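1st attempt posting a full record on here, be nice pls
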Amino acid sequence: MTETESTSTDAFDRDSVRSASRIAIAALALVGVLSLFTLLPGVGRLVPLTPVTFAAVASAAVTVAVVALLAYAAPKVASLTRAALHRTDAAERVERIAENGGAMAYWLVVLAAVLVADRGLAGAIVPLIDGFAWAYDAAFLIASFVPLVFVVARLTVTVDPLSELVADRVTGPESSGADEDAGADDSETTAGSADADESPAATAEGDATDSRTHWTEDRWNADEAADEGADADADASDDEPPTS
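the predicted structure (as C-alpha cells):
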C-alpha cells in the first residue's frame, strides 16, 4: 500500500469515527434534554382537546430526532465495523466475516431505531387511536421483523467462515491441495531437468563406447589380413623348386 492510499484510508476512518461519535453525542444530548424537560412543572398535563400530555408530545419529537440520527448513523457504523474486522493480508473467509459483520451492524442499528420509535411514539399515538392499540403494535412488529430477518440471514452465512477461522487459530491452517499439486509439479520439473542434464553425458559415453568397438573390430580385421598374407607367402616359398 502506498503512502497516498494509506493517508486516504486513515482519513476515511477518521471521518467515519467523527461522524458516528457526533451522532451518538447528539442522541445522548437529546435524551438528556428530554429528561430535564419532563421534570418541568405542568408537562404532565394534557394538551387541550387531546388525550395526549405535553411530555408525550416532547418525547415523540425527541424520538423522531433520535430515529433520524440512528438511520443516518447506520452506514457509518457498518463501515467502522468492516474496517475493524478487515485485514489487508487476510484470507477470503476473514473478508466474508468482515463483510457480514458490517451488514449485521447496519441492520442492528436499524432494528434499534425501530424499537426506539415504538417506545417513544407510543405515548403520543396510542391515546389517539384508543381501541386500536393492537394496530400500532402490529405495525411496529412487522417493521421490526425486517431488520431482524436480515440480521439472522447474515449471522447464518457467517457461521461457516467463523468456525473455519477458529479451527485455523486452534489447530493451524489446513494445507491446500493446490500446494500439493504445485509440489508435485516442481518434483516432476526437477526430475525432467535432471534427465535433460544427464542426457548429453549418456550420449557422449555411448559415442565413446561405439568408437572403441569400431577401433577394436578394425584392429582385429587388420591382424587377420596380416596373418593370411603371411600364410600365403609361406605357401609360395614351399612351392618354388630348389635352385641348383
